[in-house]
Write a structure and sequence with these properties.
Number of strands: 11
Distance between the termini: 37 Å
Bound molecules: flavin mononucleotide
Structural class: alpha/beta
Oligomer: single chain
Helix content: 25-40%
Shape: globular
Number of helices: 13
Radius of gyration: 19 Å
């Protein structure tokens, strides 16, 4: 149904990519995504490469469908990460948080398909020049580490698509059929789901985090560290509200107790990365339901619009 450059390059039926997320994007979540016909991704940003190797091994037991790996360059600084990823036999890799000139040639020479994550038009141009196969265009409303000058998907996506002829996966603000249809209308050929996947039943994080996403309003994220690096978008808690306009401290020092938050459920122990779409998520649901509904509702919405606004030749105004 979705046949396009992204489904072709990734070898998936449904052009939805589950976002890479440290400790979260592991086999339990990623295999559910791949089994649902979309693209599961295993993270390396935790830096726990032995654990990651085990997770990749588990993926092969849990699914025979395609999956990929992310190299978040700022978090895994050892260049051996590239040999590691190549040696795992995966066919698809996303690179992020670093220069696309660093690893693209080596990954492509090894036969992998490479998509690079970009937050600006200039970064997209640089990635295209480096020879990537495609782009993940990430708007500032998304969760995670961000460009300190965030640009919303509504502006960034059509801008990049109008200037660069590469397949684009839209990230930041997408979670359901209507938003997927909007991404397609703006020129993307796939979407990446971050926050929605954090909230999924198969996501390994503590229920307290999932419940906070379900309870969140659209105003319940904060954009931190704009004065320094890296900037990040996270759930609003007492801790993060205290950091919101603090230009003295680097919020990264508050990321040290991640495990207490991720798996212990203490939402004030660290910072829970999260996108504005939290305000639109109202239930914890299994991955298969999320992917299936997203794909079905996207096609239904596109069909409805085509029927309602037929593109007849001639004047767009009634006589
Ligand atoms: C908890 C969390 C961790 C993330 N970690 C990474 C990461 O390791 N590498 C990466 O490229 N992006 C990371 N991101 C960004 C996501 O890949 C994705 O692009 C973003 O969440 C999309 O926006 P959304 O939250 O609106 O879906 C993370 C996002 C979240 C919410």
């Amino acid at each position: 149904m979705f046949a396009n450059r992204v489904t072709e390059l990734l070898g998936v039926e449904i052009p939805i990519v589950q976002a890479p997320m440290g400790w979260i994007a592991r086999a339990q979540l990623a295999s559910a995504v791949s089994e649902a016909g979309a693209m599961g991704i295993i993270e390396t940003s935790s830096g726990e490469l032995d654990a990651v190797r085990d997770e990749i091994r588990k993926m092969r037991d849990l699914t025979d469908k395609p999956f990929g790996v992310n190299i978040a360059q700022a978090f895994v600084r050892d260049p051996a990460i590239v040999d590691f990823v190549i040696s795992q036999g995966v066919r698809f890799v996303t690179t992020s948080a670093g220069s696309p000139t660093k690893y693209t040639a080596q990954l492509k020479d090894a036969g992998l398909t490479v998509f690079h994550v970009v937050p600006t038009l200039a970064a997209a141009q640089k990635a295209a020049d480096a020879g990537v196969d495609g782009l993940i265009v990430e708007g500032g409303e998304g969760g995670g580490f961000k460009n300190p000058r965030p640009v919303a998907s509504m502006v960034l996506l059509p801008l990049v698509v109008s200037r660069i002829d590469l397949p684009v996966i839209a990230a930041g603000g997408f979670l359901d059929g209507p938003t997927m249809a909007a991404a397609f209308a703006l020129g993307a050929e796939g979407i990446q789901l971050g926050t929605r996947m954090v909230s999924a039943a198969e996501s390994p994080i503590h229920d307290n985090w999932k419940q906070m996403i379900v309870d969140a309003a659209e105003t319940d994220t904060v954009f931190l560290n704009q004065h320094t690096s890296p900037a990040l978008r996270a759930l609003r808690t007492e801790k993060t509200t205290g950091l919101e306009f603090d230009t003295e401290r680097n919020a990264m020092v508050e990321m040290l107790n991640l495990r207490d938050l991720y798996f212990g459920g203490d939402m004030e122990a660290a910072i829970a990365l999260c996108g504005q779409v939290a305000g639109r998520i109202d239930a914890v649901r299994p991955v298969a339901e999320i992917i299936d509904e997203c794909a079905r509702d996207c096609l239904a919405r596109i069909g409805d619009l085509a029927r309602r606004y037929p593109a007849d030749a001639g004047s767009v105004r009634s006589a």
